[in-house]
Amino acid sequence: MKITRTLATSTTPDGERITLHEHDGHHFLKVAGLQLMSTTASSSEEQMAELSCANLPAQARVLIGGLGFGFTLKRVLALTGPDAVVDVAELLPVIVEWNREFLHEVNGQLLDDPRVRIHVRDVYELIDGCGNERYDTILLDVDNGPDPFVQDVNERLYQKPGIERIKQALRPGGRVIFWSAHPDKSFAKSLQGAFRNVECIPAKAYPKAKRFTHTLFVADRT
């Protein structure tokens, strides 16, 4: 019988216990004892990257909110050229540390790709302070979606002032994608009030899943 090993523990800014585990070659991240992500379920993150990277220019500027286990980053790097700039904002320092120390063979080595710039800070701060250096695409895999699970401050990304600020951080024709653990009609309506085209796309956690358990909110700026 293969055991589950606890590799590391820490605490979120809101005081919740966060733990990294390994079982049978797979890794799992839990917050307050509840599983937040795993290396067994990355399909929706990869789909998110594919939707965001369609029709990007050669010198694309990409912003990823939430490093996680690096699957979104991996797919973005595979779909962008050598002149792209990929900013990755991760609020929790331990996520970056654990990717380097325990998850190097998963996707941790990608943190040293010359196109990648890691920012240990709130993605909202990067969006709010980007000025004229706007992005071609923004991917927000932050917390659990519009209903925060890890940190309450993440709510501002999904409220109307935050949505408007995200829009202003995009170049004309740019695209933002929000990952969510569930559908949210109210959030979709808020996006429709700010963006030209809005789609709510169901996504699977892994390729052979029978159900679409996640939602990708895709919004394009004129």
Give structural notes:
The protein has 222 residues and is α/β, with parallel strands linked by helices. It has helices at residues 43-52, 71-79, 93-101, 123-128, 160-168, 185-192; strands spanning 4-11, 17-23, 26-31, 34-38, 61-65, 85-89, 116-119, 135-140, 170-180, 197-203, 214-220. The chain has a seven-stranded mixed beta sheet with strand order 7-6-5-8-9-11-10, sandwiched between helices. It has a four-stranded antiparallel beta sheet with strand order 1-2-3-4, with no helix packed on it. Helix 5 (160-168) links the parallel strand 8 (135-140) and strand 9. The longest helix has 10 residues, at 43-52. It starts with a strand and ends with a strand.
Give keywords.
alpha/beta; four-stranded antiparallel β-sheet; seven-stranded mixed β-sheet; 222 residues; 32% strand
Q: Give the helices and strands as they follow along the chain.
A: EEEEHEHEHEHEHEHEE
As a percent range, the share of helical residues equals 10-25%
* pLDDT < 50 runs, ≥5 residues: none
Number of strands: 11
Based on CA atoms alone, the radius of gyration comes out at 17 Å
Report the principal-axis shape.
Answer: globular
In order across it, which strands form the biggest sheet?
7-6-5-8-9-11-10
Main sheet overview: 7 strands, mixed
Query: Residue-averaged pLDDT, rounded?
Result: 93
| Proportion of strand residues | 25-35%
Total DSSP helices: 6
